[in-house]
Structure formats: C-alpha cells, structure tokens
Amino acid sequence: MKKCNVRSVVQDDFDDRVDGYVIHHIFPGSRRKTSEKYGYLYKLTPDVHRLVHEHPNKSIDLMLKREAQRHFERHYGDRNDFIREFGRSYL
After folding, report:
1. In this structure, is residue 64 part of a structural domain?
2. Which of 20, 25, 28, 61 could bond 35 through an S-S bridge, CB–CB 3.0 to 4.6 Å?
C-alpha cells in the first residue's frame, strides 16, 4: 500500500503507516489534493471505506464532509473561503 505521509485533523489516531487500512479523502476527485492540504482524511478499514461510498450510506459521507467544513470554518476562513476551496457548502 502506498503511503501518502499526510496528517488528519479530524481523526486523532490517524497514522498512514499502519497496514490494513485505506486512506479516505473526505473530498475526492479534483479535491483530493485539497483534502490532503488541510488534513481532511480518515483511516478506514477496506470494508468501512466501501460502506462510505455506497448509496444508502451517503449520510456517513455527508457527516464527514460537514465535520471537515466546520473545522475549516473554525481554523482557516469563512464559508465563502470554504466554497472557493471545495466547490460548495455542506452545511
């Protein structure tokens, strides 16, 4: 498994050197690097990672995005700044 050597600001026990886990970028696709920049990553088991992406579990994905947005607005900027970085508001 490739290690990305990044930190998570939303998961205290995050360690990307532990095998058997998947690094979940809270904001995927074109926002993947931005997720890494701000530390919006979760370490998940492969099974939980699949669940996050399944349609019935989109609420988990939305919960993670909202948690990251609240963190951003407390530490980096306002809602407009968040939208510039991540494309939209999740709150």
Report:
1. yes
2. 25
Q: What is the pLDDT of residue 45?
A: 81
What total of structural domains would you count in the chain?
A: 1
| 36 assigned to some structural domain | yes
Other CB atoms within a 10 A radius of the CB of residue 79 amount to: 12
Residue 80 falls inside a structural domain: yes
Answer whether 44's CB lies under 8 Å from 52's CB: yes
Residue in 12, 20, 70, 19 with CA at minimum distance from that of residue 41: 12
Residues 42 and 28: their CA atoms lie apart, in Å, by 12
Structure tokens that stand for 67 in this block = 């948690």
Is residue 1 in some structural domain?
Answer: no
pLDDT tens for each residue of 68-84: 999 999 999 999 999 99
Average pLDDT over residues 5-25: 62
